[in-house]
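re: the backbone from monday

yeah here it is again, tokenized this time
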């Protein structure tokens, strides 16, 4: 898997210092600065402590099965803002390289909020997942031929769990799904659009956002 995070700290220097501090007990494989520098923090053959308590598609020890990439951004706590073009242009070839070398599928390139919905919001609703999806580096947001399957809320949560999310905290799981696949409206409400998007994602060939 590849897990994308934001640093959620005031600046890159603070984030790098914390990620390199053994006492902090948090680390990542790569960090991408806002001006497009890629900093290798931990070798890919080593376990980095980036995921924490998390779950995706039946995997619960995600640190043992993933590459963690921290993207410098102050996050929701310190003034969340869009990710600069230079940063995303550096991130894209990094993700592509890791994906190809490890044979990672698009469905296993996720955000921290996808794998820990009750705890995390990153990389957040401003992250340009669509740019990655158009390069087959993430799942696309389905936009074409959408059909509401009419599931009950319980049925939606069962489908969301089948897709990969931990639905123990149902509201958090719905919010995380919306943050990733319907970021313009993150209200925690299971509506027809959410049902239609999730159904399309569960089909063999999800229709993209381009």
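seq for it, each position gets an aa:
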């Amino acid at each position: 898997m590849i897990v994308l995070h934001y640093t959620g700290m005031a600046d890159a220097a603070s984030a790098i210092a914390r990620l390199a501090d053994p006492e902090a007990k948090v680390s990542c494989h790569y960090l991408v600065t806002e001006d497009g520098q890629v900093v290798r923090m931990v070798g890919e053959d080593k376990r980095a402590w980036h995921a924490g308590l998390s779950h995706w598609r039946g995997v619960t020890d995600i640190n043992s099965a993933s590459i963690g990439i921290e993207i410098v951004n102050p996050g929701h706590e310190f003034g969340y803002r869009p990710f600069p073009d230079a940063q995303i242009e550096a991130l894209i070839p990094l993700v592509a390289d890791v994906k190809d070398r490890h044979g990672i599928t698009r469905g296993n390139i996720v955000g921290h909020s996808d794998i820990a919905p009750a705890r995390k919001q990153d990389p957040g609703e401003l992250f340009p997942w669509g740019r990655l999806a158009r390069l087959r580096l993430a799942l696309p947001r389905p936009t074409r031929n959408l059909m509401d399957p009419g599931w009950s809320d319980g049925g939606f949560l069962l489908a969301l769990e089948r897709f990969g999310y931990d639905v123990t905290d149902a509201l958090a799981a719905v919010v995380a799904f919306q943050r990733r696949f319907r970021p313009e409206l993150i209200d925690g409400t299971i509506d027809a659009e959410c049902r239609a998007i999730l159904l399309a994602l569960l089909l063999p060939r999800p229709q993209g956002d381009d």
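The longest strand covers residues 2-6. The longest helix spans residues 85-102.
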